[in-house]
Structure formats: C-alpha cells, structure tokens
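Notebook entry, cofactor series.
This is the third protein in the set we're modelling with a bound small molecule. For this one the ligand is flavin mononucleotide. I'm keeping the input format identical across the series so the outputs can be compared line by line later. Sequence and SMILES below, as received.
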Amino acid sequence: MAQYNVLTTLKENISLTRREACQVVGMLGLSFSAFGALCQNAFAKSIQISRGKTAMNLPPPVLDGNTSLEKAIKQRRTIRSFANKPLSLQQFSQILWAAQGITEDGGFKRAAPSAGALYPVDVYAVVGNNGVEDLDSGVYHYDPSSHSIKRTAHGDKRKDVAIASLRQAWMATAPVLFVVTAQYSRITVKYDDRGIRYAMIEAGHVGQNILLQCQALGLAAGIVGAFYDSKVAKAINAPRDHEPLIIMPAGCKG
Ligand SMILES: Cc1cc2nc3c(=O)[nH]c(=O)nc-3n(C[C@H](O)[C@H](O)[C@H](O)COP(=O)(O)O)c2cc1C
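Returned structure with ligand:
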C-alpha cells in the first residue's frame, strides 16, 4: 500500500524534487533500490514531458549492483566499438552519478575525491541521435546537487568532437561522449598553481569511476586524451574557462 502511494504520488506530481521524494521514501521506510524501481515509470513520464525542454531531473541512481568491484577492475578495458543501440535513461543517470554524483547523505561530497572539496570538475554529456532512450540529441551539463541535466547545445555533436579529437572516427559511433572539464579558478583560489595539478588528478578519478561503472553495468567505455581543447570546448558550448581534460565515449557493447 505504501509503495502504491509513493508511485501514485510521483506519477501525479512529477515536479517533486529529488530531496522531497527521498524524504517521502525515508518516511515510508522504503529502501533506495525499491525507490529506484518504483520511480522508473514515473520518471519515464517526466522524460516525455521534458522532451524539447532544456533541463530535466534524472532517475535516482541504483545503489547496489551485480558485479563486484574486483571483477570490474579485472575486466575493464578501453573499448572502441559500440552497438547501434541507445543507453537507457537509467544507465545514463547511473554513469553521471558515478562520475560526479552526491554520495554524502544530506551533504555535498561527491563520488570522486576533490582536493579541499572544491570540485573544479564538470561533466558534459554529448548525446547522439538515439544515444539515450527518450532524450533528444544535444550536449547536456550535469548538475550534481540536483542530479539533473541542462542542455548547453542542440543536435548531435559527436562528429564535431571526434574531428576535434584528431579525427578518431570510432568516437562518433559511441551513443554518448562524456566530457570531463575543469574550471581551475575554483581550486587555484586556494592552492595557487598546484590547483591545476589537483584538478587534473581529480578528472582522472572521475574518468576511472565512469569506466568502472560502465564495466559493472556490462557497458563499453573508452577514454580519449588526444584532442584540440578549444575545438572540443566549442563543440560542447562550454564556458570559456571550462577546459576539457578527458573524453569518455560510452555505450552498449558492439
Ligand atoms: C590520459 C589518457 C589518454 C588516452 N587517450 C586516448 C586516445 O586519445 N585515443 C584512444 O584510442 N585511447 C586513448 N587512451 C586509452 C589507452 O590507449 C589505453 O588505456 C591503453 O591502451 C591501455 O588499455 P586499457 O585501457 O584497455 O587497459 C588514453 C588513456 C589515457 C589514460
């Protein structure tokens, strides 16, 4: 009965914020995995409503999985071929959460460590045509605090990013390219020039989280460091001081 009420509430009131929904779940004593499963239909409805809009909430992450960390580390490889199949919105959400999601209950700390908890890193998702189920192609910026995305560019920009990456054509076949950027001023304010090193180290942590999360979900992912920074920044329509550091193509295994 309680679960039915949660589902009904979410379906009827899809503008419920994630924090509010979590409070409801907490009050009813539901586990987060049960909450995740219950919400899928409700969020699927919100996706349709969000089509054509510039921002949307993502389904909550699932906090348990079938693959051990050890297996994910053992099996991970850079993969450069992908099936012609979209990621589900749940998979897309899960990867963004693993990259930069808030993991501290009621707090602000994230999945990847950050020197001084200053978080100079951002994640953009370059979504191709039919790259994510029920999501328009475009470039989306991930907001960890609300676990939501906001569109920064319209249309399929994968080819532009692949060309900017020394014409690594395989990249344009990945349904999604996750671009990890750094805004150094957020961290050099405390650590001066050393903050640049810290931001780059942090981006590496984010990249490994993406690779291991994809491995754990049975997905394929790679990493690219060879690209012209300014051309990639232009393709994703990032602010001038968000410097691209790594690009992580991801999708279903080919
Ligand atoms: C910083 C960095 C940059 C990389 N750049 C590229 C790249 O531009 N293109 C590419 O195909 N692979 C790139 N790779 C992937 C490496 O080729 C790959 O990690 C290496 O061959 C080891 O294979 P594995 O990742 O499957 O263990 C990069 C890896 C790292 C860590």
